[in-house]
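pasting for the record
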Amino acid sequence: MDYVGSSRLANYTYDLTQTNKDYLAWFVSGVTQAPISEIRGYFEELESDSELLAYIHARLINHRRGGEIDDQPHFGRRLGWYAIARATKPLVLVETGTEKGLGSLVLARAIERNNNGGVLYTLDIEPSAGLLIGDCFTGTIVQKIGDSIRSITELSNIDFFIHDSNHSAEHEYAEFNAVLSRLAPNAICLSDNSHVTNVLSEWSKQIGRQFSFFKDEPRAHWYRGCGIGASVSLDSKN
């Protein structure tokens, strides 16, 4: 069944079924080479973060944008984003497509808990993006407004890159090609669009990286879900 009272018009958020969440943990374990028990611990860490949950809830209530946003946060596959960031301790994270900023907050919380001085650059062409962020995680989250390709070229030594902006195949390719020379050794690249295109898979094949995919299964939601594509250096698997 649908979430009761759900009013989101796009960019749906939802919880995962318990079995699917377990599969996500195994997927992240494979991507990061971290023990499955560690990954499950990171999931629990985020889901029980009452301070972050309360902050997001308050921002959702105050910024309903005409009633299109549900007032409860649902992390879904972003649990995987969080666990990857916790397991690999990246210093430079880049997310294209800030939208409301839920993923940004999840990644920033991981950076804060890593306590290693990491920074998230979240890129969006829309000036109103990031309404959930507010003044939280000042210094940890850096918002850059403008064309994502241009913003990517201004960065370097990127440890963790997430494509979640314009999902046309052409733009997705352009982002991954732009970031290639700016990746740190053993950087992890994700696509939040690999259930639609094979861009990250093909890009990984072309440059000699390993690709894997996770398909999410929403719990109690009409949407059928999407997924995460992951690309890692073959050296990181040795």
